[in-house]
Amino acid sequence: MEEHLLNEFEEFGLTPNKKVLEKCIELLKKYEITPDTLVNHWIGYTATKLNDEAPSLENMNLFEKDLSKELSAKTKVKSELLSESPVIHNITTITQIAEDDELLVGYGTPIRKSSVGAKRTSGLEGTPQNKRLAGLGQTYSVHSPSAFSPSTPGTSSKFSTRNNAGEVVVKYPVDDAVINWTRSHETWEPDIQLHGTAETKLTTKYNYMFSRLRDKFDVLEEQINDLGDSVKMKLGIDDFEPNSVLKSETFHTIGRICCDATSGSRLNTSSLLLEGTRNTSSGLSIPLDVSQLREFSFFPGQVIAVEGSNPTGKKIVVTSITTPPINPVFKTDVSIEGTLNMMVVCGPFTLPDDLEFAPLVELIQQVNTLLPHLVIIMGPFVDMKNKKVECGDLDYTYQEQFDIVMKELQSKITNSVQVCIIPSWRDVHYRAVYPTPPFPQENKAPNFNFFSDPCVLNVNGVFIALTSTDILFHLSKEEIAVTPHGSDRLGRLVSHLFSQQSFYPLNPPSEEMSIDLEQAEDHCKLSFTPHLLFVPSDLRHFIKNVSGCLVVNMERAVKGFCGGTYSRLQITGEASSVLIKAEIVRL
């Protein structure tokens, strides 16, 4: 139990001491909860009440009171629901019923709590919220991030007084060699091209999330059929059999993993369903018995082939699972003069309770100091989870606030640095849909490039895939797995993207996501393994080689009320070979 508990803490970069672990084990036994439930509660508690402090005996005692109160409240609500007599709820109990005890709330940036109306008040009217600026034709000074400096004690001063800026937290490859980040070939500029489907459909006006149910089904059906063809080649079989066929001998069938809602709201071994295709299984879903498998990994929406028997016609007894093969790294001619220096960073770029953008100012200084050839900046830029945005406490409209940030970036970053801007569905001024169209490109600087989220870029023959959406965190909440001790969980989550050939294979998606399946069919495919994949996440930062691709999770520019991290890379290549050195550095 202690080892399991320690592994759960390590997933979030925490290493509690022996006494804290003993206290946690005591809480597990006292409240009869699992290690992952305890750690999830702790992450939410420390993010909202302790400013992401590390676990200690002192704050564990405070945490126990909060945990006891929350668990008892949920038990009370559940017992009321089961009562035969009518129950009148107040706003407190309604809120408790709606809570999900498995959800990790509010670390990294706080979750949205205020009403939609409060946010729309400052955004849809298109007028400045500052009454002094209400007059038509009136000129006013722009509040730029260069003036964003902490002037009063608080969270901003905590960022300005940090003492770990510039610390290298992860290095790849792991050696003692010092990387020279000085820019070589100062006049050389990288050639940046969008790979794959053109963004024309995304940039034109369309009614997103207006797909018919039948069209959505066709998209999901086509995904299974496309991946099923590669699985058939992998297995060396001609075709799959229906999943409901009454058969005592083993057979192969294909489908996608679904959750039986009657067995619980989350996926577990009792709620596993395999939804077959229309052509092979008439679209029927059938339960899976995975008790004979020594190891497995499932999540909703995953396309798999199942080998097993169906002696009753009502449940498949699974003997083996086959996932779609991972395509090899794309072979291409690489043409880089000397070395290609890169910086990659993901928002938000201001602390959770202000709009001073002090981390953004620091980022611009780092860019102008290192002068990399290419900088990739991913949103959110005006985060919908920021407390000031949630309560509508802004001097400008959402669009005006974003324009201020863009103006500062374009005016302050040196022209010799190529910059790629990637949006986020969390940008409050923009379309809250995935895939997210690129920002409008009016009045952009010549060295700035705007692309969609997600996208694959071809930079002089080096293929770089990236998304600002936290797919790893979403997958980690929904995946169920039985794996050997010491297996690489984060690497396994990444491999799902390659195997399912998708930037977002989870279906249904996280509750906070709005995915347009018809657009995702064209713009969310990951049909080959790139050289580089950037997946910024609230999970612990890492740099890993997964199936020949260097995968980087640099977390975010802001973490809690402190400075976050960014990544810098040095790429060399000739012919079809690519050599990458990378670091994750504290901002």
UniProtKB/TrEMBL annotation:
Keyword Magnesium: no
InterPro entries for this protein: DNA_pol_a/d/e_bsu, DNA_pol_alpha_B_N_sf, DNA_pol_alpha_bsu, OB_DPOA2, Pol_alpha_B_N
Keywords: DNA replication, Nucleus
Known function: Accessory subunit of the DNA polymerase alpha complex (also known as the alpha DNA polymerase-primase complex) which plays an essential role in the initiation of DNA synthesis.
All residue ranges annotated as the DNA polymerase alpha/delta/epsilon subunit B domain in the record: 343-544
Domain DNA polymerase alpha subunit B OB: 218-321
Chief location category: nucleus
Domain DNA polymerase alpha subunit B N-terminal: start-end pairs: 3-66
GO cellular component, one term: alpha DNA polymerase:primase complex
Recorded GO MF terms: DNA binding
Gene that this sequence comes from: EOG090X07VJ
One Pfam family named in its UniProt record: Pol_alpha_B_N
Top-rank taxon: Eukaryota
Compartment(s): Nucleus
Name used for this protein in its record: DNA polymerase alpha subunit B
Assigned protein family: Belongs to the DNA polymerase alpha subunit B family.
GO biological process terms on file: DNA replication initiation
